[in-house]
Amino acid sequence: MPSIYDLKPRFQALLRPIVNALAGAGVTANQVTISAVILSFIGGALIAWQPHGTWPLLVLPLILFLRMGLNAIDGMLAREHAQQSKLGAILNELGDVIADAALYLPLALLPHICASLAVLLVLLATISEMMGVVAVQIGATRQYQGPMGKSDRAFWLGAIALVLGVGFPVGAWVNWLLIVMLLLLVVTIMNRAKGALKETAKA
């Protein structure tokens, strides 16, 4: 199924000059990974601090975009500038899960969002990333299938935050969109499991 992840090669091409400059300045992939996690904590803290305010919601799409950029940059630094390491692999996988929780759990505090849906969203997102990693344990490669991967979640939640932040009337549509995201996360988990099993069967 289609996913924003499919646009990653084009996004990386745009970021390559920045990556080369950072590598030349001595910036490491692990530093970028940690920066993305810190940025997510800041974004989540702003929402938790002002759950009834609109400006943290307007800031969220920018933070999500910057985080996606940092996530792409750390991988490019590791692969293209000989910075791959076991520590980096751990930080990359844990960092994504921790950053998701830090950034998305505070959405449960918003008055117009069902808290249980927001918590369940983070839970299923964590399971989907775990499923991608578990594939390696059975002899497959890391799985990234959609339709609700990390980039897709960022796009959807960023769009919701932007719409709410500009004052669009709040209604049941917000929670219905979260339910759709939850269903797509279930499909994502299944797709990653199927992808891993199919890959090992071919081997």
Q: Descriptors for this entry?
A:
203 residues, mainly alpha, Four Helix Bundle (Hemerythrin (Met), subunit A), 7 helices, globular
Brief characterization of the structure:
This protein has about 200 residues and is an all-alpha fold. Helices cover about 75% and strands about 0% of the residues.
Structural summary, described in words:
With 203 residues, the protein is mostly helical. The protein has a single domain, classed as Four Helix Bundle (Hemerythrin (Met), subunit A) (Up-down Bundle). It contains seven helices and no strands. The chain has helices at residues 8-24, 29-49, 55-80, 86-104, 115-137, 150-165, 173-202. Helix 1 packs across helix 3 (55-80).
Question: What is the end-to-end distance?
Answer: 23 Å
Q: Flag low-confidence runs.
A: none
Tell me what portion of residues adopts beta-strand conformation: under 5%
Tell me the CATH superfamily: CDP-alcohol phosphotransferase transmembrane (TM) domain
The largest sheet is:
none
- Named at the architecture level, the CATH assignment is Up-down Bundle
H/E series: HHHHHHH
Class computed from helices, strands and strand pairing: mainly alpha
Number of helices: 7
Radius of gyration: 17 Å
